[in-house]
Design brief:
Layout: E1 5-8, H1 19-30, H2 33-40, H3 45-58, H4 62-68, H5 74-84, H6 102-105, H7 110-126, E2 135-139, H8 147-159, E3 165-169, H9 177-180, H10 190-194, E4 204-206, E5 209-215, H11 224-228, H12 231-241, E6 246-250, H13 259-267, E7 268-275, H14 281-292, E8 297-304
Parallel strand pairs: 2-6, 2-7, 3-5, 3-6, 7-8
Antiparallel strand pairs: 1-8, 4-5
Helix pairs in contact: 2-5, 3-4, 7-8
Length: 306
């Protein structure tokens, strides 16, 4: 999906890296690009020697020499560089991420850079101050606006920073987050917690992105709005805010019900996503009006150009 975003009004994050992260980062930075490329491509001793000779004769770096000799490609070099700087990214052939997760699957594209820009705005706006950090609910007026795509990629972008990021699928009408991350939703999820039937380990980790965790929606309930309006959601978010540095919440479109504004009220902050040439101004005005009835703060608006 080729999607660009324009952002207006945004945020910030103060993350404290754990000692485990610092140790891992140090170990990664001590490995050379050559070592990482050689190991990943299973290069033989003779092939490594060829690369070293070419590198010396032509005054280029190991990665450039490997590409010139056809023993690696440019994507391998980018992947190795990402590993050295502890940047969560899996290159083509090493990547099991859904292509829609462009920030993780294609992090050097313009689409991914747009998400990083929005991440920076959010860091400056809502995460720079001391005190409780709000969860951010992602809302849109209609289905098909790209809201789930946006929420998932924003969470991936935050997960590439130090600290723990949690992505919650609160769209109990048309959930997709578990599909994007290839996670099981049958064993339990948000609906299980809110209905008091939660099993253990409902929050799942993402193998390719070690700082990202996902709470899938779980079994689709017949009464989503009633579940969301229970005090349990507010209590859950309050508890999760003590365990995660950032929380992004996907919600249903307003055209399907008022779930989104209800969730935003309990999160504390809302991002509005609209689709260019498709979203109607009255629908957006209605969404903003509904959110403003609560204490939730609208921290930004995104226009999906495609």
């Amino acid at each position: 999906m080729n999607t660009n975003f324009h952002a207006s009004r945004f945020s910030s994050v103060q993350d404290n890296a754990s000692s485990d992260f610092q140790e891992t980062q140090q170990l990664s930075s001590e490995r050379s690009i050559g070592e990482i490329i050689s190991e990943a491509n299973k290069l033989s001793t003779d092939q490594i020697e060829q690369i070293l000779v070419y590198q010396k004769d032509n005054g280029v770096r190991f990665g450039e020499a490997a590409v010139a000799l056809g023993l690696a490609n440019s994507d391998d070099v980018l992947w190795a560089l990402a590993q050295q700087f502890h940047y969560p990214y899996a290159s083509e052939g090493k990547n099991s991420l859904n292509p829609e997760l462009v920030v993780g699957a294609s992090p050097f594209t313009l689409q991914a850079e747009a998400f990083r820009t929005i991440r920076s705005h959010l860091i400056m706006k809502i995460y720079s101050d001391e005190g409780p950090r709000p969860a951010v609910a992602v809302l849109s007026p209609d289905s098909g606006d790209g809201k789930t795509y946006f929420a998932a990629n924003l969470a991936v972008a935050f997960s590439q920073l130090p600290g723990r990021t949690l992505l919650i699928d609160a769209d109990m009408r048309n959930p997709r987050i578990h599909e994007l991350f290839n996670l099981s939703s049958r064993s339990g999820g948000l609906s299980s917690i809110l209905s008091g039937r939660a099993a253990s380990k409902v929050i799942q980790s993402v193998k390719e992105l070690p700082n990202l965790f996902v709470l899938p929606v779980g079994p689709t309930p017949p009464n989503p709005l009633e579940l969301l309006e229970r005090p349990a959601l507010g209590l859950l978010l309050r508890e999760l805010k003590t365990k995660f540095d950032r929380i992004i919440v996907d919600t249903p479109a307003l055209s399907l019900g008022t779930d989104g504004p209800v969730i935003a009220a309990k999160c504390g902050a809302a991002l509005v996503v609209a689709r260019q040439n498709q979203s109607r101004v009255p629908a957006l005005q209605n969404l903003v009006r509904t959110v403003k009835m609560s204490s939730a703060k609208i921290v930004g608006a995104i226009v999906n150009e495609y």
